[in-house]
Write a structure and sequence with these properties.
single chain; alpha/beta; 9 helices
């Protein structure tokens, strides 16, 4: 199993996962043109995509979903409540491209199994995903207001994590954002701070040299090095040595991470 974070941040999110037999996109929160370019940069032909999974209906996750689905005739998978919110946002989608993937289900795409789980975010019925291929596991958890024990149990045991570290609390509090937006981000249906991400990861990681890709960083209220340093300090306070027990990786808003094997 191989994957690349094609784009990640407050301006747009998209993730690519493949095996030798199948290939998926999870969200397309960038334009179709940007998605094509990112896939080509990692050596992937967009015409060979087998499915698009949609985590929730916010524009930074669905901007290019309709365009790509129509261009390459790709089926779209999400739950019924999210489909209800997508109507009118992604353009015309044929009936045979509409597929349902409910929370708690596991679907198989050739030799890749995908498990969905519910998350806390201000959307209709947002989801995270775990990907399984043989003995390997990849966990994707972003757009989280908080990390419940159920989510920790679900995503634990992965070889790699794509995990939200959205904002620095002090940067957010000092930002120009209106108070109602700040309150939403800080709430249980908002986004994880760097500190909360680090604390949650101390309960999830097992010190098996797992890779953690810090994702969905706010353009206005975070910096990659600050997110990494904050998470690193919290993990090392709990006895996990970053560089040996755990590897922290960056993601980028406008370019993909390299295609890596889990």
């Amino acid at each position: 199993m191989r994957f690349s974070v094609l784009a990640s941040g407050s301006t747009g999110n998209a993730i690519y996962v493949e095996t030798d037999r199948t290939s998926l996109l999870i969200d397309v929160g960038i334009t179709g043109k940007q998605a094509d370019a990112a896939l080509q940069e990692i050596g992937v032909n967009p015409a060979e995509l087998k499915a698009i999974l949609v985590s929730h209906e916010h524009v930074d996750h669905i901007k290019g979903v309709g365009v790509l689905a129509r261009r390459y005739n790709i089926p779209i998978y999400t739950n019924q409540k999210t489909w209800g919110e997508l109507e009118g946002q992604i353009g015309t989608i044929t009936e045979d491209q509409r597929r349902f993937f409910e929370i708690g289900e596991t679907k198989e795409f050739e030799d890749l199994a995908v498990e969905s789980f519910g998350i806390s975010h201000d959307a209709a019925e947002p989801m995270g995903f775990c990907f399984y291929h043989g003995k390997k596991k990849l966990s994707l958890a972003t757009d989280l207001g908080y990390v419940s024990e159920r989510i920790k149990q679900t995503i634990r045991g992965a070889d790699a994590y794509i995990f939200e570290a959205n904002h620095d609390v002090e940067m957010l509090r000092m930002s120009h954002y209106p108070w109602n937006i700040k309150r939403r981000i800080l709430s249980d249906v908002g986004h994880l701070s760097n500190e909360t991400a680090g604390e949650a990861l101390t309960d999830i990681l097992q010190g098996r040299a797992e890779r953690v890709y810090l994702a969905h960083l706010s353009k206005e209220n975070n910096m990659a090095e600050l997110a990494r340093l904050t998470v690193k300090n919290i993990l090392e306070e709990k006895g996990l040595k970053v560089g040996d027990d755990t590897h922290l990786r960056e993601t980028y808003p406008h370019r993909p991470t390299r295609l890596e094997e889990v």
